[in-house]
Amino acid sequence: MSKTTIKSGFFSFRSLAIVVATAVGVCAPAAAWANSKYAAIVIDARTGQTLYSSSADEARFPASLTKMMTLYLTFEALAAGKINKSSPVTYSAKAAAESPTKLGVRAGGSVSVETAILSLVTRSANDSATALGEMLAGSEQNFARAMTAKARSLGMAGTVFQNAHGLPNPAQKTTARDMAKLGIALREHFPQYYAYFSTRSFKYGKQTIPNHNRLLGRVKGVDGIKTGYTRASGFNLVSSVSEGNRRIVAVVMGGTSGAARDNQMADLIAAYLPKASTSGGGALIARSGAGTATAAIASVMLPHRNVPTPDSRPGSVEAVLAQAPMPVAPVRRPAKSVPTAEAVIQAYAAPVSEESVDPVSTGSIPTGWSVQVASSPSAAEAQALLDATNRQASAVLASAAGYTVPFVKDGVTYYRARFGGFSSKDAAWNACTALKKQKIACYATQQ
Q1: Per the annotation, does 226 bind a ligand?
Q2: Residue 257 and residue 348: Cα distance in Å, rounded?
């Protein structure tokens, strides 16, 4: 059978169920997808028609799908000439301290805008996301307000952003439909930059950094866009697919594993791409026009020079913040009163409770094969072990991404310290063998 459908080893009742579901026009999720985190949608990117929908308008955590909006605003700044691909992106202490996965630039260091973009697309680098947000808006908090305002202008009514990377925040919400709209907007509005999303890997120093999106090269026609994971969100994926004159954007959120999410996405593509229209092609997602609140915020917040720094504060935004679209959760205020700048700021800066989100140390976990080097009841200790191992065996792990995975045993939460992104079992086993030669205990495992 084709790789874009179920694996050939799954016969009998599961195959029959999929055939029956397709016959009635519904690609029903397998039992593993019957969970409160799951949501999915497939949209014909030529006509805007919804071909499949499951909980597509219910609130979900975006995780690293957040970086799609970070990239949208970066592309917007590039297109407007406010920055260029060679402009330096300086990493503040805050950016450098973000949890992995990250590029690993030290505080005060810098990379080009293009390198930062590639690190978001492939490794889903949290440090690069924060650094870009600080460069474009002076602070990540300002950038989050601009992200939410842009979401409103694109018709993403169910989305609120609180940060540039997607690490856990209980107030950062979206929907599968909104993520599909953003995926369509990225292609429609910035075709000159869209090819970044199909990058399979890129070189950074001595590292070759692979793309976390395992459907690139596996499913015909897939040309991006973005993966995401936190424990609170489950495994997320937005895919853009083109074949002949047909084009769709599909979203799967809340997957129980990277492999399950990828297989579900492959099944949706196989079922619904043939049903997409071969005509149409007009713009589906309107750009925000000049004079809107979003345009006003962008004009104030984006520096009008080519070499911005994260410490720059390009003007006051209070005058335009009062016009910004309000978040999903309304601000308490007297009836018929006009929202003040302070009220808007407070609404977008909702406090984060550690108990309200699940612990996670990465915004995007690689799928495929990984090498585990430690397990600890302390998230900080697990991260420290990752950092120490990376320093000791940097050559062995040059193409790998470190991350932690929480699990519960006898009522206690532990954290597995792993390096992922290996393309095969042999690659992971070879890396582990090399680590053992340096007296680093490890074993290879499939994510």
Answers
A1: yes
A2: 31
Domain extent, residue 26, equals 17-275
284 in a domain, yes or no? no
In a domain, 330, yes or no: no
Tens-digit pLDDT profile for residues 186-242 = 999 999 999 999 999 999 998 899 888 889 888 999 988 999 999 899 999 999 999
Count the alpha carbons within 13 Å of 243 in the hemisphere toward its beta carbon.
15
pLDDT tens figures, 145-170: 999 999 999 999 999 999 999 999 99
Is residue 124 annotated as a catalytic residue, yes or no? yes
In the residue annotation, 257 being an active-site residue is answered as no
Q: How many structural domains does the chain have?
A: 2
Q: Which of 55, 110, 124, 361 is catalytic?
A: 124
Task: Check if 64 is active-site.
Answer: yes
Calculate mean pLDDT across residues 403-419: 81
Residue 302 in any domain: the answer is no
Answer yes or no: are the C-beta atoms of 154 and 185 closer than 8 Å. yes
Cβ distance 123 to 401 under 8 Å?
Answer: yes
* Catalytic site residue from 67, 82, 102, 173: 67
The residue from 64, 119, 233, 361 that is catalytic is 64
- 93 and 215 in a single domain? The answer is yes
Specify if 318 maps to a domain.
no
